[in-house]
Amino acid sequence: MLRHCMFILTGIAASIALVGCKADVASGTRLSLGDVPYNEAHAVAREVMRKHFELAPSRPGDQVIAALPKPVDARAQRILGGKSPTRQLATLRLQARKGHVVANASVHLQRQGSASYEQFGASGNYSTIPNDTPSQGTAATTPEQNEAWETRGHDAALERTILQELYDAMHPGKAK
Q1: Which of 19, 27, 42, 103 lies 20 to 30 angstroms, CA to CA, from 159?
Q2: 77, 86, 143: which is closest to 111 by C-alpha?
Q3: Is residue 3 situated within a structural domain?
Q4: What is the pTM of this model?
């Protein structure tokens, strides 16, 4: 009986832990643009994103507007700390839902962490026995390929700014 109770309690604890982990899957800031044409919202969203970032190449049917990484000065960001290079990585996702267009802006703040990446390795293998070939390590790659960027937070203020600019452009003269 005790074993049965422990099994049930372990299952409940694992379920609670999994629910907590799933909460961060949809990161960023979301805003409904209302009943607007999707194609028009997509075109306006590209223009708004272009004001803040250089855009990555995309196809007309893509729901996600992605920006190229933008270097930023991390001194103002206490959460990032350190002196390693910092960048913003932004996406704007548009989805048509029940006649409305919903926009989700996400601006990740990332810090370069290649030193820890090289020290511990991408696989997390802490063995002292070398069992990788040089091509599996850094020997057969470029320095850019060996860079490791760690997400250290979000720029929620910029996410809100992008969404507000998009909303204002879709609804001129109407405050949110």
Answers
A1: 19
A2: 86
A3: no
A4: 0.67
